[in-house]
């Protein structure tokens, strides 16, 4: 236990230092001017402070006021020593944050008894602080483990959603990456952006309830089939609803709202404007960008430029204007995500074709 001792009188300083050393487990850190103390801050480490009240330049209260400007010393117990018996001086010391005060000339027995009590208090505070830090780390670890399990659940459900159609799986991952890029440009908190990226792949989970004749149809859906397909938004929200997982709650919110439109002409609930949850507004835009830039059974892929122009033109009608502005700022990142995905798909196609070509060569020989 390190005890700061400050007194401008060398005789008193030596006496106080000697008395501190007689207390078990204590080490005196002695200074005879306030300036020396201030010069050593904030690298000076001590657990208790004993400060003379009457000193030149800075009195004890003024010195202590400067010390506690540093947060690390805010909870350090301080004892003032004074020859002044005036109550005003003592009240000034107590109001400054003193835990106790001693009167000069210092009685060695009284000094050791009082300082021993304060040292015990400082040790108890340190133990509580250590326990609080341990508890904080344990809570962080438990939360991280829980979040990892939630993430694994979402990843497994996403795999299930894309089981019938491998392209659906890639679509969900691209939408997640676009969603994160837009969210960052909206200035949303870092953790929330990461959560959106984790939850966004679940936006189409309701399609697991769609019949294969509709989900895998090669061609444009009929009006009746399109109405059936629209049900996937509400179904997805229902599948994920009432979960105790914050990530699954977020995914449910996205699933049920990502086909709503800013102008109120979307589905399933015809919400408009800010009545649409922000995560749904972001994923709506990311989902549309990916749908337009990729080939579908009923359409060819649009060019990047045509898609961007289309989305910008629908700001304030189909899409939230703030999300469109964030999308425009995120375009360099979004284009990189799109091109990297296409490059990965091309490389994967080459790998799949290689064994077939080798088999053909063997057959020909």
Key structural traits:
62% helix, alpha/beta, Hypothetical protein af1432, Rossmann fold, 2 domains, 365 residues, five-stranded parallel sheet
Give a verbal description of the structure.
- By secondary structure, the protein is of the alpha/beta class.
- It folds into two domains: 2-135, Response regulator (Rossmann fold, 3-Layer(aba) Sandwich); 165-353, Hypothetical protein af1432.
- The protein is built from 14 helices and five strands.
- The longest helix has 54 residues, at 108-161.
Outline the low-pLDDT stretches: none
Number of strand segments? 5
Q: Main beta sheet: strand number and arrangement?
A: 5 strands, parallel
End-to-end distance? 86 Å
The strands making up the biggest β-sheet line up spatially as 2-1-3-4-5
H/E series, N to C? EHEHEHEHEHHHHHHHHHH
Q: Look up the CATH topology of the largest domain.
A: Hypothetical protein af1432
Topology:
Blueprint: E1 2-6, H1 10-22, E2 27-31, H2 34-40, E3 48-52, H3 60-67, E4 78-82, H4 87-96, E5 100-103, H5 108-161, H6 166-185, H7 190-199, H8 212-215, H9 223-240, H10 246-257, H11 278-293, H12 304-313, H13 321-329, H14 331-364
Parallel strand pairs: 1-2, 1-3, 3-4, 4-5
Helix pairs in contact: 6-7, 6-11, 6-13, 6-14, 7-10, 9-10, 10-11, 11-12
Please summarize what this structure is:
It is built from 14 helices and 5 strands.
């Amino acid at each position: 236990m390190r005890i700061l001792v400050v007194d401008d009188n060398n005789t008193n300083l030596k006496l106080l230092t000697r008395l501190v050393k007689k207390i078990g487990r204590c080490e005196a850190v002695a200074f005879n001017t306030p300036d020396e103390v201030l010069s050593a801050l904030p690298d000076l480490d001590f657990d208790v402070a004993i400060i003379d009240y009457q000193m030149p330049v800075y009195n004890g209260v003024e010195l202590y006021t400067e010390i506690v400007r540093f947060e690390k010393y805010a909870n350090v117990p301080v004892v003032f020593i004074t020859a002044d018996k005036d109550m005003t001086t003592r009240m000034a010391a107590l109001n400054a944050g003193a835990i106790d005060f001693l009167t000069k000339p210092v009685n060695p027995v009284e000094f050791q008894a009082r300082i021993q009590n304060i040292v015990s208090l400082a040790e108890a505070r340190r133990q509580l602080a250590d326990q609080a830090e341990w508890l904080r780390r344990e809570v962080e670890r438990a939360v991280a483990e829980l979040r990892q399990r939630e993430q694994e659940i979402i990843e497994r459900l996403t795999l299930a959603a894309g089981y019938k159609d491998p392209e659906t799986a890639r679509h969900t991952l691209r939408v997640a990456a676009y969603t994160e890029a837009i969210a960052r440009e909206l200035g949303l908190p870092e953790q929330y952006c990461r959560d959106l990226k984790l939850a966004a792949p679940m936006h189409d989970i309701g399609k697991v309830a769609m019949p294969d004749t509709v989900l895998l149809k090669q061609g444009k859906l009929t009006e009746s089939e399109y109405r059936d397909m629209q049900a996937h938004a509400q179904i997805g929200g229902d599948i994920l609803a009432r979960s105790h997982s914050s990530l699954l709650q977020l995914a449910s919110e996205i699933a049920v709202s990502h086909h709503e439109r800013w102008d109120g002409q979307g589905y399933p609930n015809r919400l408009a404007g800010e009545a649409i949850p922000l995560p749904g507004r972001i994923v709506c835009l990311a989902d549309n960008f990916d749908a337009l830039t990729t080939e579908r059974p009923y359409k060819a892929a649009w060019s990047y430029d045509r898609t961007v122009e289309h989305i910008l033109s629908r700001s304030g009608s189909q899409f939230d204007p703030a999300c469109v502005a964030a999308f425009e700022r995120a375009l360099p990142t979004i284009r990189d995500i799109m091109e990297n995905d296409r490059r990965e798909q091309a490389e994967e196609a080459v790998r799949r074709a290689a064994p077939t070509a080798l088999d053909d060569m063997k057959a020909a020989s």
